Amino acid sequence: MVKSGVDKKRYDRAAALYDIFEFPMEAMAFSRWRQLLFERLEGNRILEVGIGTGKNIRYYRERRVIGIDISLKMLEKAKEKVKNLGKNVELIQCDVEALPFKNDIFDAVVSTYVFCSVENPVRGLRELHRVLKPGGRVYFLEHMRCENEIGGVILDMLNPMVRFFGPEINRRTVDNIKKAGFRIVKEKWLLTSIFRFNVAEKMS
Ligand SMILES: C[S@@+](CC[C@H](N)C(=O)[O-])C[C@H]1O[C@@H](n2cnc3c(N)ncnc32)[C@H](O)[C@@H]1O
User: Fold this and answer.
1) 197 and 186 in contact (C-beta within 8 Å)?
2) What is the total count of domains within the chain?
3) Among 49, 62, 155, 190, which has the highest number of CB atoms less than 10 A from its own CB?
4) Residue 68 domain flag
5) Ligand 1 pocket residue status of 200, Cβ below 6 Å
6) Is 0.85 topped by the overall pTM?
């Protein structure tokens, strides 16, 4: 059962032009950061959450990938990429806060720019923890509230306006990852502390 939340509607509307709007950010930085993540990704059975239009699909060499998203329209775009690139990626519409998978089945999870918009991020992160095998890792590229307090307060002030159009810009995502039971094993600041690459591990 997929809830009909604000984010689902927002991303359904954005799907058609999403790749075009994001092209400048992708060209300037996002693609480079995606490569960084995929150079480090380990495991054969992978779950990608919030797969969106499927921008990561071209990087998968692993044989068993499942991609999920709450937005059917975003998934339709991802489906085109799976077909065009000839990749073995299964796509499922569902909510990361209620994943339709058994416990302890994935080697790794990929999440790129997702937990800024999941309605209840800790609930979603707990679901990743549940479906990962002990010792399994989540690989995140996320933007979040910066460590600098003045910058953080500015993001807090801008957040209600930005949230009206898109994701939250002041989430304390690293704290949320820890609250969900993970241990942070890697943190790399990519653009100040706002954009970060994190690897989190489910302790065995
Ligand atoms: C900013 S886009 C990022 C898409 C993709 N990961 C990328 O790197 O381009 C966020 C994605 O998360 C999805 N999303 C938001 N809330 C979700 C939820 N509760 N469950 C599953 N997907 C969700 C949206 O539909 C959207 O496709």
Assistant:
1) yes
2) 1
3) 49
4) yes
5) no
6) yes
